[in-house]
Design goal:
Blueprint (H helix, E strand, L loop, with lengths): L23 H9 L15 H24 L4
């Protein structure tokens, strides 16, 4: 983020570059998806790009959930 002086007060950032560690969500995915043969990405499971996609999906889902809570379930 480029420094913006006083205008940058109360800004927030999200870093999408993260390691390929395994977390609780990976254990659930392993148990309910990968081990049952429902994943096309078996070789890439829990790798950096897989995790990035997982995080992006979570952010999109939470954005939709927040919008629906605020505006209702309109079509």
């Amino acid at each position: 983020m480029t420094p913006a002086g006083d205008q940058s007060i109360a800004t927030s950032r999200l870093m999408l570059q993260h390691g390929a560690g395994k977390f609780n969500v990976h254990a659930d995915l392993e148990k309910f998806v990968v081990s049952k043969g429902k994943s096309a990405a078996k070789d890439d499971f829990a790798q950096v790009l897989y995790n990035r996609g997982l995080l992006n999906s979570m952010l999109g889902t939470e954005a939709i959930r927040t919008a629906m809570k605020k505006f209702g379930n309109k079509r």
